[in-house]
Amino acid sequence: MSRKDEILGRIRAGIGTRYDMPSLDDIAPITYPDPLAAFIASSKVAGSEVVELENGDTVDSIIRKRFPSAGTIASNLPEVSIANLNPDTVESAAALDGTDVGVIRGELGVAENGCIWIPQAMKEKAVCFISENLVILLPREAIVNNMHEAYRRVDPGRYGYGTFISGPSKTADIAQTLVMGAQAARSVTVILI
Amino acid sequence: MTQHSKKAAAFLKDAKYSQWHDATFWAVRSKRDTMAQGLPEWERLREKASAIKRHTLSHLDEYLEQFAAQAQKNGAVVHWAADADEFNAIVLDILQAAGVKKIVKSKSMLTEECGMNPYLEAKGIEVVETDLGERIIQLMGQRPSHIVMPAVHLSPDQVGELFEREGISDEIGNHDPTYLTYRARLSLRNEFLTAGAGMTGANFGIAATGDIVVCTNEGNADMSTSCPKLHIAALGLEKVIPDYDCLAVFQRMLCRAGTGQPTTSYTSHFRKARPGAQAMHIILVDNGRSQWIGNPDHWEILKCIRCGSCMNTCPVYRRSGGFSYSYFIPGPLGVNLGMLRDFEAHKGNLSACTLCMSCQSVCPVKIDLGEQIYKWRQMSGAIPPAKKALCKGMSMVYNHPLLYKTATRVLKPFHSLDLEKDE
Hints:
Helix content of chain A: 10-25%
Number of helices of chain B: 21
Order of helices and strands of chain A: HHEHEEEEHEEHEEEE
Strand content of chain A: 15-25%
Largest sheet of chain B: 6 strands, parallel
Shape of chain B: globular
Oligomer: heterodimer
Largest sheet of chain A: 5 strands, parallel
Mean pLDDT of chain A: 97
């Protein structure tokens, strides 16, 4: 008998009452009169900066303005013409080390907690984490109220990886003092397009 | 005195630190309350979370098969480990076959449970913890004192001096947490880039899709799996849940209950190996769980999602610290898991409970933690005779109002008498 069968056999022998799956239709999760405003507020709580693309702005101009001294800008997005490193064509993830600004696209924003769904749409997902500063482009109409709505709409994409990101990497592991920038991005800027 | 109460007495000798400990965890508990009160549906979520877990655990055979089949369809290699030894051997095999000499790993209580790090190190494989708190205690040669905040027992000075000894920080005497975190970031960055494999635990395994879901604030699980070409994920059998609709319920509760945040910074879904990487390995670990499912009084402890809220709220944990417990997981959760693991070895933790039931009032999946501790006490016969006699006497006094009045009047001058002394 395989290990798997042994383990499953013990489980079957041990299970008492088999309980039914509850209906999840009556949770009545929180919704917001203005989900975009709630998303912006939640993002700020998580430590993100939120910038709205105004008339006359381009993604390039906003990045330049926010990170005037950035040397390495990594992105595979067509609207980021100032990018000088491409996560699709780098030889390995290590080549992205030292990236000052990484620019990626978010698919969905969640009002209740500022989460942004990032399916892997690049060869090296390291760009999402290894960059000192992360910029996420997010369509302003792509906001849902809560995680229940979000999980009805997400898919990890063709590379089979996806992540919800809410704010910069953070830790409070030393004496419960909150510090932004543990192992991944030290700042997150969300550009609403 | 029990094993726990002796260690707790030692912990309480440092009054300043023990007050800080108590206040720190009460603050986390208060943040949890703010989060819970911010969602009108919070109590409904707890009901659903509990019911989903009951359903899943009582159909765990089916969900495990579905999860394994789905993960294999995604290209992952799925292993089944009956116990800790088997788990460690599987990890070693995978690493040796790939010629890996160093691994980076994100926080996993399961690898702690199995003693994986010392095992691999004895076989010549370097293991680097990448969660900041875990890295600190690894360098200190300690074990975690809390499941979510593993280095909470250390002061910035202790961490600063450690980093100076280890050559991680170069400004001697700078013990500012922001500076120390930055120095650890630089040191760990080098580890991520030079390790041959990344290892993660799992907060959830999704049966419908085969996803491994890992929640972190630091992004270290993502760094660990973005740089090295090999990803090994380890999960206890009870981590599997049916689908994304269920995941939404748990994702919303995990961090709100645990640290009082609306979400972790990263909720990452690993379904396939990244382009150019080797196949992802998933190890499903039993190590007692398939037996515990058959325990009618205690199987529901397997509903746990490891948020840590039961220890944050526990008046005994807050005033005795994680190292007062003999099991590697402290607090109400650890008392119960320790008893399932080894009754004799861990019954000295049973005194670490006032039966206030605060743990089960906050538990996001509604585990009857306090009631389970009560049941273990009934089985253990651990109550010292003196205390038994005292309880009998007290019960008589409380049940006879006249006797109570007389007794309080007579005993008043002795109110500071230490009744525990004779134990």
